[in-house]
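Sync notes, pocket subgroup
Present: LS, DG
LS reminded everyone that the earlier model was apo-only. Rerun requested with zinc ion included. Inputs:
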Amino acid sequence: MSYSTEFMDHLKSKAPLASWIDKKIKLTRKGKLLLGNCPFHQEKSASFTVYEAQDTFHCFGCGAHGDIIKFIMMSDHMSFREAVQKLAETVGVRLPEEQSAAHELNHNRRVLIQATEAATVFYQNQLHANVGRAARAYLAERLIPEREWSRFRLGYAPSGNALKTYLLKEGYEEKVLLEAGLILDSTGRKEGSFDYFRDRLIFPILSRQEKPVAFGGRLLKEGHPKYLNSHETSLFIKGQTLYGLSEALKSYKSDEPVYIVEG
Ligand SMILES: [Zn+2]
C-alpha cells in the first residue's frame, strides 16, 4: 500500500532529519547547513550536507540525496515500506493499516456489547412475562426484593432457542451471537446453533463501565450444572471481571475494608 501525503507529513514532522542523522554521524554547523562525513561513501572531507529547512540531505561526493525515509532506506538497507514502519515505530506514530485494524476491533467490540445488552433486556423482559413465573417465585422464595431485580438487571432465559430467535429477528448476525457466547455452535447437532442459557435465572455480569459482558445462570429445575457461567469471550475475561464490582464501587469508601465473597 502507499501512504498518504498527510500521513507522511505527520510522520516526518515527528522526526526531524537532522536529529535522526545526528545519532549516526557527527554533524557540524556551518551557517544554515549541517555538515558531516558521508555514511554512504568513503571520504576525508565532509561533503554530506543536511538542509534543516527542507528536511533533506545531499552528498556532494556520491550524490546521495533524499529525506529521512530515504536516509533510513540507505543506511539500514530497507525497502520504503520497512523504513516507514521503522520510523513510525521509533517515534510512536501508528501506521494507517494499524489504525484501520484498531477501528475494526472497536467496531466488532461495539457490536458484541450491543448484542449482549439486547440479550440482557430480553432476559429481563422474560422474567416479567408469563414464562418467567417460576423464576419470579424462586426470587420471592429467596427473599430478593423486586427493586434488586432491576438494580442487578436479573432476568430469565426460557427453554428452547428463544434468545437466538429474538436476536436474529432484531438483525444480529449468528456469528456475533456465537462470538458473544450467547449461543453455542451447532457441531454435531441437527437443530443448528442453540441458546447457551436455557430455563435459568440470569445474573448479568457487568463491566466496570456497567455494560453486560457475560451472564451467570442458575438452573430452576433439578439438573446439572446448577450454575452456568458464560464462557470467555473477547468481552469477558474471567480473571479480570468481578461480579457486582461496578455496583460495589458506588458505595466504596477508601477508609473502609472491602469484603470479597464467593458467589
Ligand atoms: Zn556520499
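DG: The pocket of zinc ion is lined by residues 38, 40-41, 48, 59, 61-62, 64 (CB under 6 Å).
LS: The first strand starts at residue 28 and ends at 30.
Action: DG to write up.
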